[in-house]
Write a structure and sequence with these properties.
single chain; 334 residues; alpha+beta; five-stranded mixed beta sheet; globular; binds N-hydroxy-L-asparagine
Length: 334
């Protein structure tokens, strides 16, 4: 005779066997799914990604979709086709993508290809490598069927010519330009993290990098562990701001590892920001660094060096949730 414990176990297994496909088929509301993104344009980017999650799609497809939206639809000086060029007037794009089982791909210093995030995904899926840069990344993209076209906009070219008059490399603290959360002048790198209805995590990060950077400079965004890190066992993190600081601190990896030790997403981001300050206390007064994290339970947190970092959260309950992170400094550039 089946004892009570066996019966319960059999019942749970049967329920699980039934509920998983049922959840997949009927994932219209995707109860556990959530997507979060940096900055106020994260709201429409999340909305571009959300339908993928709502129909039970993967976190990986969702973040690629959201990042592609930003690369082509968003016109700002730090992402995609409207990005500002380097100091030689060349627009170079960096992007990375990662999913929670450790698969990842990235491209750096890619020219004249509209969707670096999708090239990064192809690197992940179709090559034995993680990262392709410059000419090699472009050759690979073209071989994969991506169209080559000049991306520099007349506005970006004009901004570069204006910059040449002083030619001073002094990255601004974004908060100073932005003023209030929701300010339409917002512009920065997009980092997007998602968890899908099956509890899988993924992240994407795409940018034109720091305006007026040296030709050949690579920021944190395409570097796995710096601008992006994802681990299904723990959570995911991404970054925005002056990438050299993220690279110095392997910062997105650090945030994930702090969550692994039991920190909440916000505490982990705050500790990583403290690390940036401790390493370079003087420099950190004049540059912006921001972290955004999502743990495997769907909890979100963010922290920045300077006030003004906003991030967008989207799930079945709320599609337009824009929040401001905490910060070390409440004032902006000194
Ligand atoms: C970089 N982190 O290239 C990127 C740029 C960025 O505000 O976030 N800009 O360093």
């Amino acid at each position: 005779m089946t004892d009570r414990r066996q019966f319960l176990q059999a019942g749970l297994l049967a329920a699980g066997a039934l509920s998983l496909p049922a959840m997949r088929a009927g994932a219209a509301s995707a109860p556990g799914a959530r997507v979060v993104s940096t900055w106020d344009f994260g709201v429409p980017a999340n909305q571009a990604a959300w339908p993928v999650l709502a129909r039970g799609g993967t976190a990986l497809d969702a973040v690629e979709t959201g990042a592609r939206w930003a690369e082509s639809e968003l016109c700002n000086p730090t992402v995609g086709h409207c990005g500002n060029p380097d100091r030689d007037g060349v627009l170079t794009l960096d992007a990375s993508i990662m999913d929670g089982d450790g698969r990842c791909g990235s491209v750096a210093a890619l020219e004249d290809i509209l969707h670096p995030i999708s090239v990064a995904r192809r690197v992940m899926e179709k090559t034995p490598h993680v990262m392709l840069v410059g000419e090699g990344a472009q050759q690979f993209a073209i071989a994969e069927g991506f169209e080559k076209k000049r991306l520099l906009t007349p506005q970006a070219e004009k901004a570069w010519r204006d910059w040449l008059k002083t030619a001073e490399y002094k990255p601004e603290i974004n908060a100073e330009r932005r003023g209030q959360p929701g300010n339409k002048d917002n512009h920065d790198t997009i980092g997007m993290l998602a968890i899908d209805a099956q509890g899988r995590l993924a992240g994407a990060c795409t940018t034109s990098g720091m305006a007026w950077k040296m030709h050949g400079r690579v920021g944190d965004s395409p570097i796995i562990g710096a601008g992006l890190y994802v681990d299904n066992e723990v959570g995911a993190a991404t970054a925005s701001g002056v990438g050299e600081e993220m690279i110095r601190n392997a910062a997105s990896f650090l945030v994930v590892e702090l969550m692994r030790q039991g920190r909440s997403p916000m505490d982990a981001c705050r500790e990583a920001i403290d690390r940036v300050v401790r390493k370079r206390p003087e420099a950190s007064k004049n540059l912006q660094v921001c972290f955004l994290a999502l743990n495997k339970h769907g909890e979100v947190g963010a922290f920045a060096l300077h006030r003004g970092f906003v991030y967008a959260v989207c799930d079945a309950g709320k599609r337009e949730d824009l929040r401001e992170s905490g910060s070390v400094y409440t004032t902006t550039q000194s």
